[in-house]
Specification:
Number of helices: 12
Radius of gyration: 26 Å
Helix content: 40-55%
Number of strands: 8
CATH topology of one domain: Aminopeptidase
Order of helices and strands: HEEHEHHHHHHEHHEEEHEH
Structural class: alpha+beta
Length: 309
């Protein structure tokens, strides 16, 4: 490792990354001052001076590896498969990759955030500072979570009237995902949801997510319940529906819907939150367990062979 004496500022990191990506020029950096210069701009004596050293190596192959890692980090199967198809074709990989990225605004933001972090990690490791110790304090304390940037593309409202039909369709899609097409347990769950949604006496907490252009992105809602006799714990929120449109999955939208609806529940003096989570939705169970929710029950089902079958 080089014995660098200069301070690695945010501006210097950005300059190093810019020079790394310039494939037409070879740059060096002064180990004491941190000054960067094209190698061919130095005199022969300066080029032989051990005070200068190379910047981190960055080749086309390294860019391809970064794209592969980005694709592997995506949870959304629509984005992931489309990008994988692009990089599997030998010709025009980088150009076609960028065209796909630009086609989807949430994906574009996620890519630029991923690339920024990836390149800065390379520079920090090259500089010889561990990421854990550095913790990006000299980088303006930027967040390690991409979701905060991604979710700036969504708005949230308790008024879902204009998305009523899409919300109903979302319920049907989720039930189909969970139980399969035309299953009896799925029909039962849909009927329970419909009855509760149409019950004029039901107390509903609801939150709808939409894109900045007003398109439906997701929904979460639940019913408030309290015993007739006052008891410890007071009101309970029974969450009946959490759905995110497939085009926006993997961006943290589901977790944000949960967080925002829970805040509304706290304002409504809710003492307990109860999620009904189907067995095969393991990603929701994992999310809830990370938030310290505890499982309280499990429902089992088994088809029976009827005499006339």
């Amino acid at each position: 490792m080089e014995n660098f004496e200069f301070e690695l500022t945010e501006e210097l990191v950005d300059e190093i990354i810019f020079c790394m990506e310039d494939q037409n020029t070879e740059y060096v950096i002064h180990c004491v001052t941190g000054a960067i210069a094209p190698l061919d701009s130095l005199s022969l004596d300066e080029q032989d001076d051990e005070s200068f050293t190379d910047l981190p190596e960055w080749r086309s192959f390294d860019g391809f590896i970064m794209m592969e890692k980005f694709i592997s980090s995506l949870h959304n199967p629509l984005y992931r498969e489309e990008l994988r198809n692009v990089i599997s074709v030998g010709k025009g990989v980088f150009r076609n990759f960028k065209l796909i990225i630009k086609k989807y605004e949430p994906l574009k933001k996620r890519w630029y955030t991923f690339k920024d972090r990836y390149m800065k990690d390379l520079v920090l490791n090259w500089y010889g500072v561990s990421r854990e110790a550095w913790r990006y304090e000299k980088m303006g304390k930027e967040s390690l979570e991409t979701e905060n940037l991604i979710l700036s593309d969504f708005t949230f409202s308790a008024d879902c009237n204009r998305h009523e039909q899409e919300s109903i369709e979302a319920e049907e899609k989720l039930i189909k995902e969970v139980f399969g097409e035309g299953s009896l347990p799925g029909q039962y769950q849909l009927e329970r949801i419909r009855q509760l949604r149409e019950d004029p006496g039901a107390r509903i907490l609801l939150l709808c997510a939409e894109t900045l252009n007003g398109s439906f992105a997701g929904i979460m809602w639940g019913a408030l319940w309290s015993p007739q006799a006052p008891s410890e714990g007071g009101i309970m929120l029974i969450v009946k529906m959490l759905y995110v449109d497939p085009a926006f999955r993997g961006l943290g939208l589901g977790k944000t819907l949960i967080d925002k609806l829970i805040r509304k529940a706290e304002e409504a003096a809710v003492g307990t939150v109860y999620f009904e989570v189907p067995e095969n939705l393991s990603f929701i169970r994992s999310l809830l367990e990370k938030e310290e929710y505890q499982p309280v029950t499990r429902i089992y089902s088994r088809p029976l062979l009827l005499p006339y079958q």
